[in-house]
Amino acid sequence: MNLKPDCLSCLLNQSLRVAKNLNLDDETSKKMMQIASTSIGTYGEVSPPVAAADLYPKLASFTDSDDVYKELKALSTKEALKLLPSVERKVNSLSTAIKAAVAGNVIDFATPHHFDLNTEFEKVFETDFAIDDEEVFLERLQRAKSLMIIGDNVGEHVFDKLLLKTISEAYPNVKRYYAVRGRPIINDVTLLEAKELGMEEVATVVDSGVPTPGLDYDYASKEFMKLYKSMDLIIAKGMGNYECLEGVKDERIFHLFKVKCNVVSNDVGEILGSLIFMQNKV
């Protein structure tokens, strides 16, 4: 999916949120926004994640760290872990584990609309998927020998681990993999956060190599792509992965996310806030 006009304003708003998160003074914030504005004006026919991969290192140049949301990512994990025991009590099947994983997708600093995590978990188990290919997924899972979840945001990954744990209990012979970003980008999960959580207890954690907040094949490492192509089944978490993968025509991929922006809402044909579990179009 290529950038739409709304995406450009979203990227600019993201830049302002980064400036505020870094507590920059007015003059420095103005310089950051000028650089962001100039960069955003040059983006052509690329996906939003590819544009973000160009923009965020420029924003990070205003700080000593390449991880502009390091503290907020740690806070997201902390808050998710607080909720985990109550969520675990509600997860009694693969279907409820999938719902828990999609509820975690509300943790996202790159979208214009924000949702409360506590409220989300109060209602998610009673909410139907607007697009629901779960039956197809579960049927394919019965025959699968390997499964990869492509991670999205930190905090959300707490509930991805719960989903992988549930899958391992139901299908212990399925080889499980969890793919992360190749470097810090927005609040997406990297090897660091996955290992801190102990994701390796339920899956083999693999570095995709991508610097993009979505799995763009052009940026992925050869080693990762070799493994990726061998998978029987793939769950792509979040809108960034959807934006990169919706056009690749691979029926192994199932997108799992909450609609959090108007551009994706228009693309999938469902209203803002909808839950999506959709097999990739072929």
UniProtKB/TrEMBL annotation:
Pfam family, one: ARMT1-like_dom
Protein name (record): Damage-control phosphatase ARMT1-like metal-binding domain-containing protein
InterPro entries: ARMT-1-like_metal-bd_sf, ARMT1-like_metal-bd, PH1575-like
Domain named Damage-control phosphatase ARMT1-like metal-binding: residues: 5-272
Species the sequence originates in: uncultured Sulfurovum sp
